[in-house]
Write a structure and sequence with these properties.
Layout (H helix, E strand, L loop, with lengths): L1 H11 L8 H19 L8 E5 L7 E4 H20 L6 H23 L4 E3 H26 L8 H19 L5 H29 L4 H24 L23 H5 L4 H19 L1 H11 L1 H6 L4 H28 L10 H11 L4 H24 L5 H5 L1 H14 L18
Parallel strand pairs: 1-3
Antiparallel strand pairs: 1-2
Amino acid sequence: MTAITMSAPALSERPMFKVTRMGIFAVFFLLAAVMLFSSMGGLTPATLTTLTFGADLPVIVVGTFNFTLVVGALYVIVGVVGLLPVPTLKRAQSIGVGIALILLVPALLIVAAANNSINVTVMLQVSLRLSTPIVMGALAGIWCERSGVTNIAIEGMMLSGACFGFTAFTLFLAIMPTSEAQLLGVIFATLTGGAMALLHGWLSITFKTNQVVSGTVINILAIGVTSFIRRDVLLSSEAARETLQPLAIPVLSQIPIVGDIFFNGRPIFYAMFVILFATHIILFYTRWGLRTRAVGENPKAADTLGINVNRNRWTNVFIGGLIAGLAGAWFSMETSGSFDDNMTSGRGFIALAAMIFGKWMPFGAFGGGLLFGFSDALGQRFQFLGVPIPPQFLQMVPYFITIVVLAGLVGRAVGPKAAGEPYDKEGK
């Protein structure tokens, strides 16, 4: 009798509903179906969407009404099946979610461009271009966190790089040609990011300050310093308006679609791919990478093998800062040709989300950065097509995608075990 009495409260305390990742996906696609069906009010069976891919390439004409109806019905099925707590349907639920995710991007483009045309190649090109600072910021975070240092100061490093790089370019432009001044500006931006990283390392590695607090201090410092520089230097001088010029790679830039997307970019855009492959090779195919991963996972064991833990962390944090500073130069020197207060607009934090999405892997982070870049490009494209959505909501798209991805796609992500933990060498 006693055992029954004790177990009864435990049974009553069990939750009636359990929130699962599949359940989140199911609700998301049911809401997406509602949005698709509501968008059909202005469509007719004769409404068409034209997908183009560039000059001299075939076009695809899609019946917008029928496509929206089919995809909406599929989303309803995926949502309903995903909510069924039947273990035998788990495989079917996963397949359905995968198909629904693949159709999500074309569905958004086709519905948005109803009675109009959209160039898919340009859309992909813009997505890659807008993902550049996010991917580079995520790679900067990987260099730091793989060695055991949490770095939420990427936003501040990028903002500082954007400001000081553009300021140096403006001042050097008065005494030298544009191309040389731009090169020095990019170098100054990169070194500025490295300097901010050294400050982060000094606080978090040497003085063992809480690494989140250290990163927050650097972000706040960057906002104040860059605002002061802009007001007292840039606004009182003849600020330049030049941007880094595109560099078409011979032969490769002539390849249809692929050449337009990858081989007609600007210097920092190309640098993103160089850093991506270099990061992957160094982390997983070199002795330095092996030591870095060992320090990030078990610094005590690494120390017993003769690895200087704190020196390794200092070096990796500095490298991460250099990458973040170069990413900052993308904003002021490759895109806008100017500097504005807080022009990074939280891209450093989105980069951290891309890093988590990619499970602290370089190519995974690249995929996450591309996802956020596409969401940003999608919001811009919606404004261009005149989609009846307030522009403030369209500007929220990248941040909304960040929340959805971290909550639904990633769930509980586990990074390097020693990330965020200062290390004290035994005997000191």
